[in-house]
Q: What sequence folds into this?
């Protein structure tokens, strides 16, 4: 973390006024614009104006969500240079100036006083081995990546510009959550001192994942690990305050119970919820991103547009982006592409699988497949989420699978009389939290109607219909 004394000195050298320094200090500590306005008893517009004046005085160019992140990175780089100069006197220092397109480096030398040097705009001046450290356990290949421009922009806004502390990216399996975060990380990693990615697929105990993260954050040194989980959380948050880190935890649904409603932790794993809440609520300058096939109750409780906690439900690709998948497979019958994409709801994994089937069975002709009016469902994608369902959830899924049209709550209630009304409400809420049912609004009554998308309906009908209740 940048010391207040150093910040005051560099601010004075740049003509930063006390009121502007207040905003700068609070922003660097990870507080949102809304919270700063409330704490200083000023308007959010005034907070933004003061930040704009700071950008000008620090010669920060550009626009959009990256300006504050660039300022933060530059100040951190300068502080590291200052610390290095105090530890190891030198004749001069090499600094880098970045052009507008962040590509060409200009190398110059200056006297050692960092308060009079131009701000370095690249992490190449970092002297600590932790800075710009990338530690991602399972990196997937995103060299072929279609669409998602809006989702990438939204996440970049939250993470880089708004300094959000906790974000959840949620959605059905195969929808592209991990690919999206991998692509995003490639785009924004330069704004962070370290980027760490881990999969929780094997449900590691909390003390294990904390030890792993602390070892990565303290690299190349060995951390002094406390035996107590609470103290390890304190250690982790201390690192998140001192450095700007991006942590990504994938497969968070592995921590949640099966045969129960959504979002409840496995026995002995409740501490993860406490960790997520503390990262969301305590002040620091880092961000934790959770990737999950199920909605997390912490996010539902804490999420608020004015706070630094957000969730992004990932939907299917836009038709024009999904078409790129079919184009890449050299499929024909373009007049049927739109129908195929809609049938599989733009799910990238489902589209890739059915494209392979069409190539092998129908000589790449989408039209020949579409006119059969059938659905091919890959069991491997849906086995895991379906096995996690409670008995009542499976029963409701089976009822929905045998209906040709969407049903309202009252219609479902009349058909499934053996399920209590309160239980049916809980089940529908839980299935929605797992993203296994579709909810549409009736044009006639304005009420919500519930149904299953074709792939899920086919899966339930084919593999789980033998035990379905009879009318």
A:
């Amino acid at each position: 973390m940048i010391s207040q004394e150093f910040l005051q000195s560099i601010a004075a050298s740049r003509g930063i006024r006390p009121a502007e320094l207040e905003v700068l200090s609070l922003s660097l500590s990870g507080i949102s614009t809304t919270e700063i306005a409330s704490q200083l008893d000023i308007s959010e517009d005034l907070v933004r104006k003061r930040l704009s004046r700071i950008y000008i005085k620090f010669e920060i160019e550009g626009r959009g969500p990256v300006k504050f992140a660039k300022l933060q990175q530059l100040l951190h780089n300068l502080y590291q240079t200052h610390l290095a100069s105090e530890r190891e006197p030198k004749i001069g220092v090499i600094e880098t100036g970045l052009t507008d397109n962040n590509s060409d480096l200009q190398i110059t030398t200056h006297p050692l006083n960092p308060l009079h040097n131009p701000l370095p705009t690249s992490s190449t001046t970092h002297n600590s081995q932790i800075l710009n450290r990338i530690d991602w356990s399972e990196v997937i290949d995103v060299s072929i990546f279609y669409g998602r421009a809006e989702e990438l922009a939204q996440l970049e806004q939250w993470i880089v510009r708004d300094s959000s502390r906790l974000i959840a990216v949620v959605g059905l399996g195969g929808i592209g959550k991990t690919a999206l975060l991998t692509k995003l990380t490639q785009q924004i990693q330069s704004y962070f001192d370290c980027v760490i990615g881990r999969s929780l697929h094997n449900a590691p105990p909390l003390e294990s994942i904390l030890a792993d993260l602390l070892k990565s954050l303290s690299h190349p040194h060995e951390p002094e690990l406390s035996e107590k989980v609470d103290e390890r959380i304190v250690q982790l948050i201390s690192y998140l305050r001192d450095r700007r880190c991006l942590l990504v935890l994938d497969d968070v649904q592995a921590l949640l119970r099966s045969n129960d409603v959504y979002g409840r932790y496995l026995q002995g794993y409740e501490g993860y919820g406490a960790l997520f809440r503390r990262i969301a609520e305590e002040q620091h300058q880092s961000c934790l991103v959770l990737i999950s096939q199920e909605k997390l109750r912490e996010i539902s409780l804490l999420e608020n547009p004015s706070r630094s906690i957000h969730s992004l439900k990932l939907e299917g690709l836009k038709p024009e982006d999904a078409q790129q998948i079919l184009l890449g497979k050299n499929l024909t019958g373009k007049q049927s592409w739109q129908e195929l994409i809609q049938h599989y709801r733009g799910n990238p994994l489902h589209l890739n699988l059915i494209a392979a089937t069409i190539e092998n069975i129908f000589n790449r002709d989408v039209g020949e497949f579409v006119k059969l009016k059938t659905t091919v469902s890959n069991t491997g994608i849906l086995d895991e989420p379906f096995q996690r369902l409670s008995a009542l959830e499976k029963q409701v899924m089976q009822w929905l699978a045998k209906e040709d049209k969407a049903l309202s709550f009252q219609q479902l209630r009349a058909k499934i009389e053996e399920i209590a009304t309160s239980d049916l409400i809980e089940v529908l809420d839980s299935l929605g939290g797992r993203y296994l049912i579709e909810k549409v609004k009736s044009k006639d009554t304005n009420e919500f109607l519930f149904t299953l998308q074709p792939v899920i309906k086919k899966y339930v009908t084919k593999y789980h219909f033998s035990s379905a209740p009879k009318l």
In short: The chain is about 45% helix and 10% strand. The longest strand covers residues 93-98.
